[in-house]
Design brief:
With about 230 residues, the protein is α/β, with parallel strands linked by helices. It contains five helices and ten strands.
Length: about 230
């Protein structure tokens, strides 16, 4: 679900007649989205519409513009650059191939916002409050660690090695949601980690990178933006 701060930020940059799509918004669709694209049908909506503090707000989408669709049925039923802005929130980390979905997001929209859990959140034991998974690190159904590296969205496969190497687990998250704004296009890739040594070395590198970030944000807000937040200069 979108929070009030991000919702207001997006509203502040949208033009009045901007056409917006919420991709994967079937649980808590954002009220300002003109279209929803999700595997669920309109009458299968799970949660409430996310008005995010907009008291008295009205949904822009309707049953007619709620598109029930398999993400991997490509291309999606929209022309190139059909949307002025797209949102894809807490969805890519679930998918078997987020790269191809990122490419389709860029095809149909001119700019957008993507959110996932930070890798720090996915590296913490007990982040899930569900009694059947509260002893696991991260969320059991998520397939990927997602990071921002050199302005790229980078996906790394989650693996169980941290259970035997718990020194690289994260205790203090600092920020639980990765926020990625983009305009025109963005780079994304999967980083393959080969073998035990390479995977654990990557976990070690991230552990110390995150620890350094926690120290820096005490005095340096710019570094807060670099690690877990990204937006175009415009």
């Amino acid at each position: 679900m979108i929070n009030k701060e991000i919702s207001n930020l997006i509203l502040s940059i949208l033009k009045r007649n901007a056409v917006v799509i919420d991709i994967g918004g079937g649980r808590y669709p954002w009220f300002r989205a003109n279209y929803i694209l999700d595997k669920r049908a309109f009458n299968e909506k799970i949660g409430n519409t996310a008005f995010a503090g907009n008291t008295g707000g009205k949904e822009y989408f309707s049953k007619k513009t709620w598109i029930s669709w398999d993400f991997y049925k490509l291309p999606w039923p929209f022309e190139d650059n059909f949307f002025d802005f797209s949102l894809c929130m807490n969805t890519l980390e679930d998918l078997r191939d987020p790269i191809v979905i990122c490419k389709e997001i860029q095809r149909i929209s001119k700019s957008g916002y993507i959110s996932t859990p930070t890798r720090a959140a996915e590296n913490k034991v007990g982040i899930s409050k569900h009694p059947k998974s509260n002893k696991l690190y991260g969320y059991f159904h998520h397939r990927w660690f997602v990071e921002i590296i050199d302005s790229k969205l980078v996906f790394k496969m989650k693996n169980p090695l941290l259970y035997q190497n718990r020194q690289w687990l994260i205790n203090k998250i600092g920020q639980s949601t990765l926020n990625y704004f983009w305009e025109d296009s963005f780079d994304c890739k999967e980083q393959y980690l080969a073998g035990h040594d390479g995977t654990l070395r990557d976990a070690e590198i991230f552990y110390y990178k995150h620890k350094k970030w926690l120290d820096l944000i005490k005095t340096d807000q710019f570094n807060r933006s670099c690690q877990y937040n990204h937006w175009p200069e415009s």
